Structures are given as C-alpha cells and as structure tokens.
Amino acid sequence: MGYVFRFCGAPISWCSKKQDVIALSSCEAECITSCHAACQALWLRSLLGKMHLGLKSAMQLLVENKSTINLAKNPIAHGRSKHIETKHHFLRDLVNKGRLELCFYKFEQQAGDILTKPMKIGRFKKLTKMLNVVPLETFN
Predict the structure, then answer these.
(1) Residue 52 has what DSSP assignment?
(2) Would the pLDDT of 136 be above 80?
(3) Is 136 helix (H, G, I), strand (E, B) or coil?
(4) DSSP 8-state class, residue 87
(5) Are the CB atoms for 2 and 29 separated by under 8 Å?
(6) Is 54 helix (H, G, I), strand (E, B) or coil?
C-alpha cells in the first residue's frame, strides 16, 4: 500500500509498505490503505492547526476504487462487504462527520502508484512530474 500527501502542490508526507493483513477483495485492500491514509490525514490536519494553518474544509482523500468510496458513504452492510472488519469502518465515521471527503481518482492520476507498482519509464517520469519531484542537479 502507498499514499502521498501534498500541500500547496509539494509532497509533504508519503508511505509505502506491505499491508499487514490479507485482504479478500480489492475493495478491502483499498479500504485498509484508505484507513491508514485517513489516520495520517488526521495527524497532518492537527499539525497544520498547531502551525496556525488550519483547514476550513474536509481533507480530500483520492481513492481509485469506487466500491471503497460507496462503502464509506453507505452504512448498509452488503453481502459482498461482510468480510471487511469493523475497525476499517473508521473511514465511514470520518466521512459521516465531514472530516474527510473521498474522491474518485482514475488509475492514471494516482501519484502514489510510484511507491508501490513497477512501471515503464514514461509513466515513472509522468508521476514524478505530478509530484513535483526534480533531480538534485537542478538545485546546483
């Protein structure tokens, strides 16, 4: 799993790690990742508040799985989502309280993929550009 947080267009926090639980579906895997990212979002929001840079609106979490977004927005348990542990419904609570907004992002726009997936050089360059990552030589 992996995620990247940006502030004013620059990456300020990122994570890439192997999930510590086995997901039974892609929805559950995205839910687990989104839950970890939501915890980081809450911490970053608190940090920004302490720096007097508080946010007035909900933080946006960009997710590439529509099922995960629907599960977080709809509290009804579906037959296909019964296997997802209750602790991962933390995401739903944040959405319902208006502290987090889940937005669908297509695969091509997921900059965090650079941390978790093998890719061709063209896609790698595109994602580094999306993250505003530049070679160190440009600063000399």
Answers:
(1) T
(2) no
(3) helix
(4) G
(5) no
(6) coil
Pairing type for strands 2-7 and 100-104 reads: unpaired
Asked if residue 45 lies in contact with residue 60, where contact means CB atoms within 8 angstroms, the answer is no
Beta bridge partners of 7: 10
Domain ranges within the chain, ordered by starting residue: 2-139
**Using CA atoms, how far apart are residues 114 and 55, in angstroms rounded to an integer?**
27
Cα–Cα distance for residue pair 108/8, rounded to 1 Å? 21
Two structure tokens written together for 64: 């590439």
- Token pair listed for 52: 């007097």
Q: How many CA atoms are closer than 13 Å to the CA of 113, on its beta-carbon side?
A: 20
What is the Cα–Cα distance from 120 to 25, expressed in whole angstroms? 26
Q: What digits encode the pLDDT tens for the residues 60-117?
A: 888 888 888 887 877 565 555 655 666 667 888 888 888 888 888 877 777 878 888 8
